[in-house]
Amino acid sequence: MQFTEKRNVNRWVIIGISFVIVVAIIWQTYVFFNIFKAEERAKMELWADSQRTINNADLETQDISLPSKIIQENQTIPIILVQNDSIVGHLNIGDSLSEPSIETLDAYLQTFKKENESIKMEIGSGTFQYLYYGNSKLLNQLKYYPIALLTIIFLFGLVVYNFYRSTKMATQNKLWAGMAKETAHQIGTPLSSLIGWIEIMKADNVDETTVTEIEKDVVRLQTIADRFSKIGSEPVLEVRDIVAETKSSYDYLQSRFSNISFTFKAPDKAIPVSFNPILHSWTIENLVKNAIDAMRGRGKLEVRISEDQKFVKIQVCDSGKGISKSQFKKVFEPGFTTKKRGWGLGLSLTKRIVEDYHKGRIKVLNSEINRGTIMQVSLPKIK
Fold this sequence. Notes:
The chain is an alpha+beta fold. The chain is 56% helix and 19% strand. The strands form 3 sheets. It has a 5-stranded mixed sheet. It is elongated and about 135 Å long.
């Protein structure tokens, strides 16, 4: 408990420090922006003074080399000169090969009016021009710098979060795999004892039907223990008849649910597929039990097997309550369940068995509320 609380405190400390760093960067960028903006304002005032000097200079007696040099050195800041509400000159707008149109200059002028305050220049007795200027490319780039920086920080945080989440999930998977293997190991001891008791029952001439049914349940328990022991390990795939293996799982489940009307349809031939029999049995059992839960223990259930050129398709159809289309993908997420009791792991495990171990596909083929659902498993055929 203390470890968890300390970890949460550390997490909030890191978040707080990150927030302070981001705010500091944005503030520093804002300060730089204002410094550069003030420097550009000073340059434009100097440019305006130079232009005023040239306009009012006596060209025969006065040296204007310095004002001319100041004017020529401005290669970055766009300028528009306005006199009597008309544009009389511009600089650093458009390219040198073509003259910008009046509409373009008007658009720039409206932008400049929003960006910076104009500078008033007297070019003669009672005659004035107004200098409007925009931000240089450097200033505009600096304006978008915080956005780019925040984007980078966000992406970095996303990578860290995904790494943390994947690490946490990997740890949880190892924990679940360890618990599953330990469960399989613990089940093994009473199973051995049950097998011994069955042999005693046979020796005592107990009713053969009773002993046979108990044997089936013990074999099923052995199968379940074998399933759990395989969690976290790469299963061994075998080429077997998918129809016969599916029918075997179907028959066992049919004998255990008397209130369900079972139907099995499949091609009257063997269809060889590479799969793990124990995990495939688990897949069929999960789908069938999930369908029975959806029907609340009463209804019609049909298992169908068909094939096309690439896949063998196994469909489990029920007459249950159905699910909405928005939940077609959610039903395979760990922890998702519509039952009051349950961990929501059955279909998640089934999806992992089908897609990760057998390279197949599983999906909700169709479902209608209060009419039923069709789940479909597609396994690749042997080429």
